[in-house]
Amino acid sequence: MTETSLIAATLGLAHPWKITSVTFYDEEKRIEITVDFSIGGSFSCPRCGATARLCETATEVWHHSNFFNYSAYLTVRVPHLECTNGCGCGKIELPWTRRNPRFTLLPQS
């Protein structure tokens, strides 16, 4: 198992999610992980579960103070989806917020 696949499994990532980069800073005990989704990946409406289309994306940074004894930062391109049933445009639930609620969304500057 590679470091990328280990981190992906720990975060609960599955297609269409993917890790695009991992950088370790040993002296600072810091890890920076970039997460994106595959073009053409399909998502469901966060409200009703119907098929949804991408309407926009936003970049978010999430922090975990003790991820394998490192301070971890996830930089993520988050899809906002438009439901085909008319629920509107909404942000999906991210895998690491379900499996590991210790990640905190940092405020945007």
Biggest sheet descriptor: 7 strands, mixed
* Coarse morphology: elongated
Supply the number of structural domains: 1
Unreliable stretches covering 5 or more consecutive residues? none
Report, as a whole number of angstroms, the end-to-end distance. Answer: 36 Å
Summed over residues and divided by their number, the pLDDT gives a mean of 88
Oligomeric state, counting identical vs distinct chains: single chain
Task: Please state the CA-atom Rg, rounded to the nearest Å.
Answer: 15 Å
- The helix-strand sequence is HEEEEEEHE
Count of β-strands: 7
Helix content: 10-25%
**What would you call the structural class?**
mainly beta
Structure description:
The protein is mainly beta. It has one domain (3-105). Helices cover 13% and strands 50% of the residues. It is built from two helices and seven strands. The protein has helices at 3-11, 95-99; strands at residues 17-25, 30-37, 43-44, 51-67, 70-83, 89-91, 104-105. Strands 1, 2, 3, 4, 5, 6 and 7 form a seven-stranded mixed beta sheet that branches. A hairpin with a 4-residue loop joins β1 (17-25) and β2. The longest helix has 9 residues, at 3-11. The radius of gyration is 15 Å and the shape is elongated.
Secondary structure layout plus pairing:
Layout (H helix, E strand, L loop, with lengths): L2 H9 L5 E9 L4 E8 L5 E2 L6 E17 L2 E14 L5 E3 L3 H5 L4 E2 L4
Parallel strand pairs: 2-5
Antiparallel strand pairs: 1-2, 3-4, 4-5, 4-7, 5-6
What's a concise summary of this model?
By secondary structure, the protein is mostly beta strands.
